[in-house]
Design a protein that fits this description.
With 136 residues, the protein is α+β, with helices and mostly antiparallel strands. The protein has one domain. The protein is built from 3 helices and 5 strands; from the N terminus they run αββαβββα. It has a 5-stranded mixed sheet. The radius of gyration is 16 Å and the shape is globular. The protein starts with 10 loop residues before the first helix and ends with a helix.
Length: 136
């Protein structure tokens, strides 16, 4: 189970902590990618996306093991949903800078490496140009 955050971000988080049963795992899902322009897809999701942000260069950043339980929960959801899981990492200067894109291949708390992925570092323009190819 993911550790409880030290503080809450808003009133909804406060309500979750006091009103939902303790056995619930509160997991935010940052993004579902939909191919909206193609109605033949019936607005079915193409991928699950976890967004991460800090000040570490996208070339250097990798998923933190402290977030293992979060990644494990998201990965298990993606497997059940039969959707790929992606992590999009960016810094506060994005979209002027670069972003890192991770296609998560596997997450397992009992093995090393605990997470495997394919990583790309892109500019915002490159991401926009390659979006359909990346998520096809």
């Amino acid at each position: 189970m993911k550790y409880i955050n030290k503080s809450t971000a808003n009133q909804f988080h406060d309500w979750q902590r006091t009103e939902l049963p303790g056995r619930f795992v509160i997991q935010d899902l940052d993004t579902w990618i939909l191919l909206i322009s193609d109605t033949t897809k019936s607005f079915n999701p193409l991928a699950l996306v976890e967004e991460k942000r800090s000040t570490i260069s996208p070339d250097s950043w990798t998923p933190f093991k402290d977030d293992l339980n979060n990644y494990l929960a998201l990965y298990n959801l993606s497997v059940k949903a039969k959707l790929p899981l992606w992590i999009i990492y960016f810094t506060p200067d994005f979209p002027k800078g670069k972003m890192a894109l991770f296609k998560v291949l596997h997450v397992d708390s009992s093995s090393l490496p605990w997470i495997t992925y394919e990583k790309q570092v892109l500019t915002a323009k490159e991401f926009q140009q390659q979006f359909s190819k990346i998520f096809s």
